[in-house]
Amino acid sequence: MTADGSEASGAPGDDVPLPRILCDTAALAALGDAPAGALWRLAESGRQLDANVVRIPPGRRVDTHREPDLDVLLLVLAGDGTLTAPDGTHPLTAGRLTWLPHGSTRSLAAGPEGLTYLTVHRRRPGMRIQRPGPAPEQR
Questions:
Q1: CATH no. for residue 77?
Q2: For the chain, where are the E strands, in sequence order?
Q3: Contact indicator for 78, 95 with CB cutoff of 8 Å
Q4: What is the pLDDT of residue 82?
Q5: How would DSSP label each residue in 58-87?
Q6: Is 76 inside a domain boundary?
Q7: Would residue 69 count as lying in a domain?
Q8: d(C-alpha 15, C-alpha 29), whole Å
Q9: Which of 24, 94, 101, 136 has its CA 20 to 30 A from that of 12?
Q10: CA 73, 79, 80, 83: dihedral to nearest 10 degrees?
Q11: pLDDT of residue 133
């Protein structure tokens, strides 16, 4: 029963969202010669999250950057590396789950086996086309 007292059918085709298997992260992480960058992206319609499986080849890095708007969870799937933040260097090993709060500055470097990780964060809102208005300082 639903909150309004009606029966919830949950049968496929009733526009009820269903859990879905999206990918095999172990298989993606096992691709030793995978290219740098995103190996998989969450692309389902109606989602509230974005997620990516990313590979950094051995000896490569993601330069220092800051995400001003979104908290990010980073889960290491395979390999190892380091997270460098203003408070120092932190080891990243398989299974390590790291929270990267919005506004934080960080860089990532892959170890000798490379680094494959999953990131998950709130979906960014799409661009909107609006009529031109006064500049922010004129409002």
A1: 2.60.120.10
A2: 37-41, 49-56, 61-66, 72-85, 88-93, 97-100, 105-122
A3: no
A4: 98
A5: TT-EEEEEE-SS--EEEEEEEEEEEEEETT
A6: yes
A7: yes
A8: 33
A9: 24
A10: -30
A11: 62
133 belongs to a structural domain: no
- Within the chain, residue ranges assigned H as helices are 25-29
Q: Position 34: which residue type?
A: A
Rg over alpha carbons for the chain, rounded to the nearest Å, is: 20
Q: What is the pLDDT of residue 125?
A: 65
C-alpha 127/C-alpha 7 separation (Å) is 38
Q: In which residue ranges of the chain is pLDDT below 50?
A: 1-2, 6, 139
Is the residue at 9 inside a domain? no
Q: Considering the entire predicted model, what is its pTM?
A: 0.74
Question: How wide is the angle at C-alpha 29 spanned by C-alphas 25 and 31, nearest 5°?
Answer: 125
Name the residue range of residue 115's domain.
25-123
Q: How many folded domains does the chain comprise?
A: 1
